[in-house]
Amino acid sequence: MKKNLLTVLTLILPVLTFAQEEVGLDQKIDQAFAPIANFFKNVVFFPIYQGEEFTIPFVLLLLVGSALFFTIYFGFPNIRYFWTAINTVRGKYEDIEKHGAQELYGEDGIAQGQDLTNVDIEEHLVSVEDDLAVDGDIVDTIRDESSEGEVSHFQALATAVSGTVGNGNIAGVALAIALGGPGATFWMIICGLLGMSTKFVECTLGVQYRDVGEDGTVYGGPMYYISKGLKSKGFKTLGKIAAGIFAVFCIGGSFGGGNAAQSNQATIVIKELFNWQSTAAGAIVGLVLAVLVGIIIIGGIKRIASVTEKVVPFMALMYIIACVYIIFSNFSLIDDAIGLIVKEAFNPTAFGVGSVIGVLLVGFKRAAFSNEAGAGSASIAHSAVRTKYSASEGLVALLEPFIDTVVICTMTALVIIIFNFGGFFEYGGDGSGVVFIDGEPFEGAGITSKAFAQYIPYSNIFLTIAVVLFAVSTMISWSYYGLQSWKFLFGRGKVADLVYKILFLTFVVIGAAASMGSIWSFSDAMIFAMIFPNMVGLFLLFPVVKKQLNRYLDAIKLKVDAIED
């Protein structure tokens, strides 16, 4: 522990000088980052239509259109395979994932229904070498694929969820409602449901094309399935270029949405709790967060997974309980809130939204930022799973947008909408995301905090803890995403790792000290920029996903038939 702490302090030593200057620190950071953030934002959100009432950026159309295509092509996997995904996380199919269905239940394998406790699987695999193929694998290439991987299905899901269930669920939802009104919630839910299909595709590919080092370390994600997958299709050069571009954007995303935006929102609620006004307070909070995050990320994916599998379920459950308490404490207003969400989705009255398309765009944008379906980031965590079937983890991954957007984001939205039945602020505001409650400005997590405080005593303490836990869990997951991308570009040496970690921990402090505007502009641009190269891979490789899905479903059927016989 002492060694880890000393290492972290060494990593963030360059940041201490940065944090010493008190006067105008946030303004100086904004001045430095605003031009960069605005430039990237304008490029990434380049409009294919620009009118007086709304603007349609191409990236959002690409994201939603792709999600709709994958949903239809795979036969609505977000609905059909939802329970299969639950069973996979529960470990119901762990035996076939470890050894393969045909080896355990097939006609050329062990007799159906036989007790497998004392069976030597390796010896059995040798006995079937004369077959052309075993469970879809050519005989000469058979290996124990289940031994390749570092974490379980649940740990992979928890790590990926911790990367998405963050302050986008608290601050992002509040921002969506502040800008687009209650109707934005409806489109957030729709985007979340469609995003389940995209997440399934990209995470299946993440496992299918991963690299496994000699020491068992897994390297996966869009960088690998774009480069290796496109090479197998005869597009080697395109694959290398697209993979490199993705890695650059993913590193930017790890510094922005996965880091600076998270420490920014954590700092806001901490400063509000203790009523700190000093601009240097943000940098101090950032330094503390940097130490905490640094201690965790030094251990790599196994330590990250061991932390997230404990923290994520706990914090998500506590947050949901608090939301449910508020919602059902105002039971008579639930139908009014739901009715307002549906009505405003198709007939928005929020100032500045202007039309159905306007509120739809607000909802889709915030949902996409929250669950990251289409960005490909989560496949980096899911690729580290131990499994013989890549589609098994793809199915597990489709639960992610459901948990993140359909459940948690909706809970937050209902709390804010019920709160605002008291007429505390005007939907739409001035278009900046800042609303005035009792004459004071609030934005992001501050709006959610104000809503919680209306119904739960000392909720400011609870929400502060929730926001900080959300932020830390997201940062440690995104540090892994960014580091994997960094390794892809600069190699897997210790020096490269050290440089990345110094930069990452520096951005923890930068995010904490800066204002919300510039940080979120930069974060939005980086997260959405990842969509472009990722979609190149998804659209050229989705037939592979279909094949792997059928392979996994056939394996499950073999087991079910064997048990029934």
From TrEMBL:
Chain ranges passing through the membrane: 54-76, 237-256, 276-299, 311-333, 395-419, 461-481, 502-520, 526-545
Subcellular localization(s) per the UniProt record: Cell membrane
Major subcellular site: membrane
GO CC terms, sorted: plasma membrane
Cell membrane as UniProt keyword: yes
Keywords for this protein: Cell membrane, Membrane, Symport, Transmembrane, Transmembrane helix, Transport
Single annotated GO MF: amino acid:sodium symporter activity
Pfam families assigned to the protein according to its UniProt record, in alphabetical order: Na_Ala_symp
Keyword Iron-sulfur: no
Origin: domain of life: Bacteria
Membrane topology: Multi-pass membrane protein
NCBIfam families named in the record: agcS
Family note: Belongs to the alanine or glycine:cation symporter (AGCS) (TC 2.A.25) family.
PANTHER family per UniProt: AGSS FAMILY TRANSPORTER, SODIUM-ALANINE, TRANSCRIPTIONAL REGULATOR, LRP FAMILY
Protein's name according to its UniProt entry: Alanine:cation symporter family protein
Organism: Neotamlana laminarinivorans
